[in-house]
Amino acid sequence: MNNIEAMKKQIVLLEAMLNDVGAFIFGKDINGCYIYANQAVLELFDRPLKDVLGKDDSHFFELSLSKQLKVNDNKVLTEGIVIENEETNVVKATGDIRIYKTVKKPMFDELGQVIGMCGISTDITEEKQLQKLVSQQKQLLDTVLDNVDAHVYMKNSEREFLYVNNKTAELFGRPVEEIVGRKETDILPKEIADHFHQSDSKVFSTNEKQIIDEEVIDNKGNKLRYLSVKVPYLRDEELPALIGFSSDVTELYQLKEQFRKQANTDHLTKLYNRRYFVAQAEKEFCRAQRHNNSLSLVSLDIDHFKKINDQYGHPIGDQVLIKIAKKLMKNIRCEDVLARIGGEEFSIILPETSIEVAMSAAERIRLEQENLPVKGDWYGEIKVTLSIGVSSLLTQDQNFDQLFMRADEALYQAKKLGRNQVVKF
Q1: Which of 32, 59, 210, 315 gives the lowest tally of CB atoms within 10 Å of its CB?
Q2: What letters, b where the CB count within 10 A reaches 16 and e where it falls short, cover 102-124?
Q3: Would you state the torsion angle of the CA atoms of residues 282, 284, 289, 291, taken in this order, to the nearest 10 degrees?
């Protein structure tokens, strides 16, 4: 085999390789006309090689819509530099819009003058479309998660944040980029981070969704409540992770507490109401019996309260009730339960209190009220006295009602005996 035949075989082999390389390979002269095109280029143009050689890109691309192609070619041919860039080209034969990652290099003669260029282009249209779709989906997801009324985050088992939405970042007082990739112990005070990690650990140990009602004290001492849903998220060959959704339910919890208090509170005096009083009394009755403790009950009634209403009017009568309620509050212990039972009647539960101590406390209340007339936004003073009945738990008592009835009977006796006095049953 002579050299010419060997070279022919090498050229055939080289052409086969260039046709199978999976990219668009071409060469152009100094005027931008094609001097070589591999099979991929010919298929793109839907032309045989003879109809491509000697022609420039105006025959194959819509150059008005493929501006980057011409810019890149001019730089290579006039400046003699290598260009690596993306080109968006519109193919005349099909009208398709294709995106290419292109490398174009100048070709030189023996004097170093640019005589043309060669290039290789890879079609990345589908890749760019996928990137665009992923970007759009990410933007949509970020928009949703940044505007949802919850703190959304993702952490791995090493306590590192993998994702936080803007609401979480605002809560932590840091931009997102300063949180992602860092451990929660680097972001939050230790006691708060450890508090949250308790429920996180349960997610990782059980690999099950957890729903947690969490309470946190912030830096200002405010008590915050969160309802958190934490879901395990397993990743191939990576640390286990969880996705958390924590909703601030502080206002809802406070509203719930407010409703609970309203349900248990007399709207006028702000003391406990009869319903709450009875419920607490039943508990104290059972506790006293179980531990063989003493328990006393004081019932109070404002003497001649109807006359106050008749003489001064009901609004002032209400003010008298409020002022007496405040005065009574100052005379009870923290463990005692004071309530407005109805109208002008009040009751006090005194846990672990004997009848003698209860009588002494009741007499102190009676004397204080007798010696301190009620003053307010009206002319003069209103002299108010109290009739008080006291009873104590007996071993034969079967329920609280028996204790309550005895205190009520003692109160009736105090009124019958002339009012402004304390009577025990």
Answers
A1: 315
A2: bebebbeeeeeebebbbbbbebb
A3: 150
Q: Rounded to whole angstroms, how far apart are CA atoms 352 and 194? A: 40
What strand order describes the sheet that includes 337-342?
337-342, 345-351, 295-302, 386-392, 422-424
Which of the listed CATH numbers 3.30.70.270, 3.30.1360.130, 3.40.1190.10, 3.40.50.1240 matches domain 265-424? 3.30.70.270
3-123 homologous superfamily: PAS domain (3.30.450.20)
**For residue 174, what is the enclosing H or E element?**
none
Active site residues: 344
Task: Give the up-direction half-sphere exposure of residue 139: CA atoms within 13 A in the CB hemisphere.
Answer: 6
Helices first, then strands: H and E counts in the chain? 13, 15
pLDDT tens, 209-247? 998 887 776 667 777 888 889 999 987 778 899 999 988
Query: Does the domain formed by 130-252 have CATH 1.20.1050.10?
Result: no
CA distances from 65 to 68, 126, 422 (A): 9, 19, 103
CATH 3.30.70.270 segments of the chain:
265-424
Contact criterion met (CB below 8 Å) for 64 and 156: no
Structure-token pair, residue 176: 């997102």
Determine which of 167-181, 279-293, 384-398 has the lowest per-residue pLDDT on average.
Answer: 167-181
Are 368 and 331 within 8 A, CB to CB?
yes
| 372: CB partners within 8 A, 6+ apart | 327
Domain with CATH 3.30.450.20 in the chain: 3-123, 130-252
Q: Are 230 and 217 in contact (CB under 8 A)?
A: no
pTM over 0.90: no
Overall average pLDDT of the 84-112 stretch = 92
Would you state the pLDDT for residue 137?
84
Q: What is the pLDDT of residues 13-60, one digit of tens each?
A: 777 677 777 899 999 999 999 999 999 999 999 999 999 999 999 999
Neighbours of 418 (CB within 10 A): 9
Q: Measure the N-to-C terminal CA separation of the chain; round to a whole number of Å.
A: 135
